[in-house]
Write a structure and sequence with these properties.
This protein is α/β, with parallel strands linked by helices and 215 residues long. The chain contains ten helices and five strands. The structure holds 2'-deoxycytidine-5'-monophosphate.
Length: 215
């Protein structure tokens, strides 16, 4: 790896259940970089509102909660619940909430020697100057199937049709919102994982990153 001046940022975006979380963790581990799943910041804000019995439709209240968020406290296991994800996707349309969380995400991205941030708007809004941008996607059927298999293998019960329709609804909300909609940055590398194993996606990502890290 070449000597790095400042933080080297890897921006990873894509729709729900495209495999970007697993890929991001794997990349962060490979390069010894700090990793932030920015979806957890939206989830933690939504969960704090739900836990306190506060409304999900007040931008002022949600922004206040978002400003007080401690990134160090984010715990994936309690934030993974489907209802929390649904609530997160609702407050993620609020510009005030996004401003507060984007500020925190940008501070995180400056950590040395490098960072991997994954989400929906990392390459377009949070870190538009990132030297590596990946847009990880897969067909909605494949993503719904992965979610379904995850739930079943964890011992849960689910109905495929319901999950499929949730995935499509979530895409519409994430791609259709006015503020920072999900879309690939103009200079992002596209990785379609519909017919790719996580190992193959990792190898493809690694060759892109290694090239960018070359002096
Ligand atoms: O990736 P996830 O399912 O944990 O994300 C939860 C919601 O948060 C998702 O519906 C959209 C929102 N989100 C966002 O708007 N911007 C990000 N950078 C990350 C997530």
């Amino acid at each position: 790896m070449s000597a790095l001046n400042g933080s080297f940022v890897i921006a990873i975006d894509g729709p729900a259940a495209a495999g970007k979380g697993t890929l991001s963790r794997r990349i962060a581990e490979e390069y010894g970089f700090h990793h932030l799943d920015t979806g957890l910041t939206y989830r933690a804000t939504a969960k704090a509102l739900l836990d306190k019995g506060l409304p999900l439709d007040s931008e002022e209240i949600a922004e206040g909660i978002a400003r007080d968020l401690e990134l160090a406290d984010l715990d994936r296991s309690v934030l993974a619940r489907h209802e929390v994800g649904e609530a997160a996707s609702k407050i993620a349309v609020m510009p005030g909430v996004r401003r507060a969380l984007v500020d925190a995400q940008r501070r995180f991205s400056a950590k040395e020697p490098g960072t991997v941030l994954d989400g929906r708007d990392i390459g377009t809004v949070v870190c538009p100057n990132a030297p590596v941008k990946l847009y990880v996607t897969a067909s909605s059927e494949v993503r719904a199937r992965r979610r379904f298999d995850e739930i079943i293998s964890a011992g849960g019960t689910a109905e495929f049709g319901e999950i499929f329709s949730d995935v499509k609804k979530r895409d519409e909300r994430d791609m259709g919102r006015a503020d920072s909609p999900l879309k690939p940055a103009a200079d992002a590398h596209l990785l379609d994982t519909s017919e790719m194993s996580i190992e193959a996606a990792f190898k493809a990502a690694k060759s892109i990153i290694d090239l960018a890290l070359k002096p």
